[in-house]
What does this fold into?
Amino acid sequence: MREKKLWLIITFHTTTAAMAMEAMCAAKNLPGRLIPVPREIPAACGMSWRAPVESREKLVSAAAEASIAVDGTYELML
It folds into this structure.
């Protein structure tokens, strides 16, 4: 069994926003990947962005600059 780790989870209102986040992060070489929204988190869209906790400011700023609507940010053991 793998060890759980604290992750940053970013949720979105729409799947389009989640996919825009994936494209923007790939283009800017930012950390993370798309995952299904963990059941502990309420979200309108079924997809979320998982990344290292220490990348929160960089990712939230980049999303705002790219006009990607973020629903919420969470720290969760996964």
